[in-house]
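ligand=0WD
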Amino acid sequence: LLQLKDKNIVIMGVANERSIAWGVAQSLYRAGANLIFTYRQERSQKKLNKLLEKHDFEAKLVVQCDVNNDESIAEAFKEIGDRVGVIHGLVHSVAFAHAEDLKGDFVDTSREGYAFANDTSAYSIIAVAREAKNYMTEGGSIIGMTYLGAQRVIPEYKVMGIAKAALETSIKYLAEDLGKENIRVNAISAGPIRTLAAKGIPSFNDILKDVEERAPLRKNVTKDEVGDMTMAMMSHLSRGVTGEIIYVDSGFNLL
Ligand code: 0WD
């Protein structure tokens, strides 16, 4: 039904066991996909290797990739392409903003901090799609991870809200551009999940509590729920969907 068996899927952004990308990896692995991981820091590579061992998962390939660097992206995807031939799916689960730009007042966001957050969290999906598409010769599916702060002012989210708005719009332009090659491009807008990246957001606990109290499902989402929706978006089941922002947030965005 899913048609994910032996499909080569690149997952970017497993930093540790809590990472949303790790939830995605578990769902896709169970569906029979071949997993290719990219990491930025050595520390993450070590954590990833331990996770794979602990869960008895076999990765097809693990490569280093810094999305702030075009050369690093080109090298990583060349290595992936040379090793697996065809890429069927890509999960971009990467974002970063300087801690000082997530504190204090939004109006004090620095020029450099604004550029860096957008470069890492939004432009990177364009750069990565450009390299990946060379190997997506049988069509494919690309997913980015976003958050409601792109659409509404969530005061704590600050410059990341701007970066996510750019990411969501980039997803739509990429969908239009790559649709002719049968490559679908979508984003999942996840509810708040306690991860390393979430640590940078002050009052994250209040955001979690608010979802639990007010979201239609009256609970927070898990990385496994995001993983399962990502699996659906990677699969044959979603073949008619592109350019969409899909909320996995217990319905909170309705409020
Ligand atoms: O509540 C949350 N946690 C939500 C997260 C709600 C909605 C969306 N998201 C998004 C995030 O904004 C991000 O796009 O989901 C995605 C994944 O976030 P996460 O799982 O919360 O984050 P985390 O576990 O911290 O992993 C992010 C990875 C880290 O991996 P490494 O290997 O670098 O430790 O993104 C990485 C980050 O460091 N990253 C980069 N990877 C490659 N190149 C770069 C970079 N330049 N910068 C950051």
